[in-house]
Design a protein that fits this description.
Blueprint: H1 8-16, H2 22-40, E1 43-46, H3 48-63, E2 74-78, H4 105-112, E3 116-121, H5 155-162, E4 168-173, H6 179-185, E5 188-191, E6 211-216, H7 219-229, E7 259-263, H8 273-288, E8 292-296, H9 304-319, H10 338-349, H11 352-365, H12 371-394, E9 397-401, H13 417-422, H14 428-433, E10 437-445, E11 448-455, H15 461-473
Parallel strand pairs: 2-3, 2-4, 7-8, 7-9
Antiparallel strand pairs: 1-3, 4-6, 5-6, 5-10, 9-11, 10-11
Helix pairs in contact: 2-3, 5-6, 7-15, 9-11, 9-12
Bound molecules: glutamine.
Length: 484
């Protein structure tokens, strides 16, 4: 049996009925990493020893008759989430040799149910990018075509899931970093409502936008992970104190009477015809299952990209001020004084994209420009949020492409920042509005996956999951595997 290729749900059934042990499952995943990771380059660090130890602990728990849905399941963690005693790099040189003294809350929650951590996955440095090419180490590759980008910034996590180098993964999403790579790699990815999942221990990029979420092989697995990672955390004041439903209960393949809005603006701006037609086919399929749909307009989403590229760099410039070479990470050598040391550390430690964003953000926040840029962006963000809220007065979900094109070639967009950033045009509005959105595979073009995005109102994860599940159960795109 191809153990590494299993979904979380399928593996859980085998573990629970004692047909397979977590050690066997974990060894199969580690072997898979060994045999394909030189092609996908999904991982920055593989934690084999920890994984095997955790697998044995999981097997003990299962033997005692207590198998939670994620007990013994090999999971990968994006390398911007803190793991105690394990390198946490953010794919940046500035965090050189950084081993956190604590676990992120999501990591703690996975450990509490005896999930198995197999490793830390590659990302664009500090999650800034859409292809993993901004990683300070190396670019990850798309398992469907290793000359193509896996998307980003959670490109390592999406690539690892698609290549069966883990059963599921965690990513983070500030402007699309879970959904866009999930779409490029033909897997499922969900950005929950802002505050649904604790960000304690997630290295901060843009604090009003960042959210952690699952990247999985299907919608059921997304619900299973969401059940474990969601909920209030006293250590993250932005986490919501709202009960966590059992998200697997929303997995009914029934969309009768559900109202779908299709915002026409998000089909403009560089949407490839094959992507548009796959998404329209998806809408028609859902209509065939009893949903109602209508084209709608949310005009201010057109300002999503410019607003995001003021707000995210502004928050980043403030969040990244902490890397000073003093307390942890890289410290530039042989400086005559602390100020020079700080400046040289930042010059040597940060890559070009991160530096550019710090400069843009510092500029947008500076006295004299604050009103013209940051404040104005905040006001337009409010308009955009209202536009989306208005749409949800009429519709249960909004459906769009996840990204306007399929995966682009490695190197193809590095010198064209606008083209690179346009790959997030459909995902950014959900972050600005704080709402949940899921991407599921909905087709292929030239052998590369296409993603369907389903957005729901704040805390409407259940309806998004339900529509996504109904679509998935009536298609087989999620079952296709790349040939590595
Ligand atoms: N690609 C977007 C950016 O570069 C979003 C990244 C993210 O969601 N972390 O900022």
């Amino acid at each position: 049996m191809d153990l590494a290729g299993l979904t979380v749900k399928a593996a859980h059934e085998l573990l629970k009925s004692r047909q397979v042990t977590s050690r066997e499952l974990t060894e199969a995943v580690l072997r898979r990493i060994e045999s394909v990771d030189d092609k996908t380059k999904a991982y920055v660090t593989v934690t084999s020893d920890i994984a095997l130890r955790q697998a044995d602990a999981a097997d003990k728990r299962i033997a005692s008759g207590d198998a939670a849905p994620l007990t013994g399941i090999p999971i990968a963690i994006k390398d911007n989430m803190c793991t105690r005693g394990v390198l946490t790099t953010c794919s940046s040189r500035i965090l050189y040799n950084y081993k956190p003294v604590y676990d992120a809350t999501v990591v703690e929650r996975l450990a509490a149910v005896n999930a198995v951590m197999v490793g830390k996955t590659n990302l664009d440095e500090f999650a800034m990018g859409s292809s993993t090419e901004n990683s300070g180490f190396f670019a990850s590759r798309n398992p469907w075509d290793t000359e193509k980008a896996p998307g980003g910034s959670s490109g390592g996590s999406a690539s690892a899931v698609a290549a069966d180098e883990c059963l599921a993964a965690l990513g983070s999403d500030t402007g699309g970093s879970i959904r866009q790579p999930a779409s490029f790699c033909g897997v499922t990815g969900m950005k929950p409502t802002y505050g649904r999942v604790s960000r304690y221990g997630l290295v901060a990029f843009a604090s009003s936008l960042d959210q952690i979420g699952p990247i999985t092989k299907d919608v059921t697995d997304t619900a299973l992970l969401l059940n474990v990672i969601s909920g209030k955390d006293p250590r993250d004041s932005t986490s919501l104190d709202v009960p966590v439903p059992d998200y697997t209960k929303s997995l009914a393949p029934d969309v009768k009477g559900i109202k779908i809005g299709v915002p026409k603006e998000l089909f403009g701006m560089g949407t490839a015809p094959e992507v548009a037609s796959a998404v329209w086919d998806a809408v028609k399929l859902l209509a065939g299952l009893g949903a109602e749909w209508k084209e709608t307009s949310t005009p201010s989403v057109e300002y999503g990209l410019p607003v995001y590229y003021i707000i995210a760099p502004s928050e980043a410039s403030s969040n990244l001020a902490r890397y000073d070479g003093v307390r942890y990470g890289l410290r530039s050598k042989d400086s005559p004084d602390p100020i020079t040391m700080l400046m040289k550390t930042r010059e040597e430690g940060f890559g070009a994209e991160v530096k550019q964003r710090i400069m843009i953000g510092t500029y947008a926040l500076s006295a004299g420009y604050y009103d013209a840029y940051y404040l104005k962006a905040q006001k337009v963000r409010t308009l955009l949020r209202r536009d989306i809220e208005r749409a949800f007065e009429e519709f249960d979900v909004l459906v769009t492409p996840t990204s306007p094109t399929v995966a682009f070639g490695l190197g193809e967009r590095v010198d064209d920042p606008l083209a690179m950033k346009l790959s997030d045009v459909c995902t950014i509005p959900a972050n600005l509005a704080g709402i949940p959105a899921i991407s599921v595979p909905c087709g292929f073009h030239n052998g590369l996956p296409i993603g369907l995005q389903i957005m729901a109102p704040g805390l409407g994860e259940e309806i998004a999951l339900r529509v996504a599940y109904a679509f998935e159960q009536n298609t087989d795109y999620h079952k296709q595997k790349p040939n590595l």
